[in-house]
Amino acid sequence: MTLLSVNLNAVAQLRNRRDLPWPSVVGIARVVLDAGASGITVHPRPDERHIRRTDVFDLAAMLRADYPAAEFNIEGYPTPEFIDLIVQVNPQQVTLVPDSPEQATSDHGWDFHAMGTHLTSMVQALRAPGRRVSLFCDSDAGAAGATAAKATGADRIELFTGPYGACYADPDKAEYELAALAETARAAHAVGLGVNAGHDLTLANLAAFQAAVPGVEEVSIGHGLIADALLTGFPAAVRAYRALLGS
User: Which of 71, 158, 177, 199 is catalytic?
Assistant: First the structure.
């Protein structure tokens, strides 16, 4: 069974178009959790163009009070400010991504060999009882990348599925990307890393991903699920993704 964590960045981005408190990030979090999502993912960036620091604290308080079994996953680049935020909020999972502040969205995984020493120090700074650290990982990292990721002390990798998601009109390329993802996942499992996945997973491509890449513990889905929710509503969209995940 693969758990579903719903990324709420796009909800916050829509809210931020106006100086108004809706749509409510906390309110939508309640809706998706009530519909069966296992957790909430956010990626606060320094310019707060979608998720704000206040959202992170509001979500953490709501989850502690009303959904203690749900997981809070916070993604970000490990700046001192981000590390301080994690220490204050103490989420169950932190996912480190190699984003620069100006990036529109995550578009590549870590270079575990070049950044190994830095990542090791960051992972050690962020690990705590009841909190795991996951590292964003390119689909083709393979055995060498998995071994280097494990050496940092991380608990999991998150497979970057963006290149696979971009293959919606090219079945041959999609098959190639799935093979790369499957190989990296196998290598990660072999060295004792858990495997998450995320980016551009949709109702149209999720079943093939699940079949090709077994053993994924959690997927984080935002853009695709929220696009579906515009048509069907959030509860129905969450239920549709859960059905494909077997969760």
Answer: 199
pLDDT at 106: 65
**Which DSSP symbol is given to 133?**
E
Q: How many domains does the chain have?
A: 1
- Residue 43 annotated as catalytic: yes
The pLDDT value given to residue 247: 83
Which domain covers residue 197, as residue numbers?
3-245
Number of residues assigned to the chain: 247
CA-to-CA dists, residue 215 to 101, 164, 185, 188, 241, angstroms: 32, 18, 8, 10, 17
Q: CATH number, domain at 15?
A: 3.20.20.70
| 189 in active site | no
The answer to whether 50 is a known catalytic residue is no
pLDDT, tens digit (0-9, with 9 covering 90-100), for 144-183: 999 999 999 999 999 999 999 999 889 999 999 999 999 9
